[in-house]
Amino acid sequence: MEETPNINYMPRIGDKAPDFEAVTTAGQMKFSEYNKDSWVVMFSHPADFTPVCTTEMSAFAVDKKWFEERNTKLVGLSIDSIHSHLAWVNNVREKTDVYMDFPIIADLDMKVAQLYGMLHPGESTTAAVRAVFFIDPAGTIRLIMYYPLNVGRNMDEIQRALIALQTSDECKCALPINWRPGEKAIVPPPKTLEEMDERIANTEYEKIDFYLAKKSI
Ligand code: BEZ
Description:
Layout: E1 21-24, E2 27-30, H1 31-34, E3 39-44, H2 51-62, H3 64-68, E4 72-78, H4 82-96, E5 104-106, H5 111-115, E6 130-135, E7 141-147, H6 155-171, E8 185-187, H7 193-201, E9 206-209, E10 212-215
Benzoic acid binds at residues 46-47, 50-53, 149-150.
């Protein structure tokens, strides 16, 4: 069953991604079907035909294959009509040769923007902020980024965060600050005196102290 939008609702990490049906540039979308068996990175932009948004959405288009290779689908959103989306996608293609051929949700009634807490009234009551939702194949929200209207996002960090989420799932480990593929992971800290003594004696890990140790993954 679809959930009722509420301007005050803010999704949180660990929540089930709210399901919805929407019109997109790739046709009608039922989100739970789109999300089936794959990660989804969903991002909102304030408005079509605006400069910062054009740089961001073009960057997603250029890197679409990178996301697909990591079992990740893209979906954009703004509070614009489908006609505006189509004209913008065509304009960007004509002017720059970049084809934004991932689905972009036309959310004129703000239904999806409200479901995902993309409207931050202190910033704008009519335009979505620059949100990024990382949703895993089980439909769980795993990471949320919110950027204001006047600052574009960082594609490098979006991609680093996706790889980090997928890696931490695979190795069931935590990853330290600025972690990059190829670097060591955090070994969970000991929870008993016995485990602490084992950790102190361990010579295999890179150890700062018994509670801060790293291992190759
Ligand atoms: C932009 O994408 O350039 C933009 C959109 C809304 C407010 C400010 C900047």
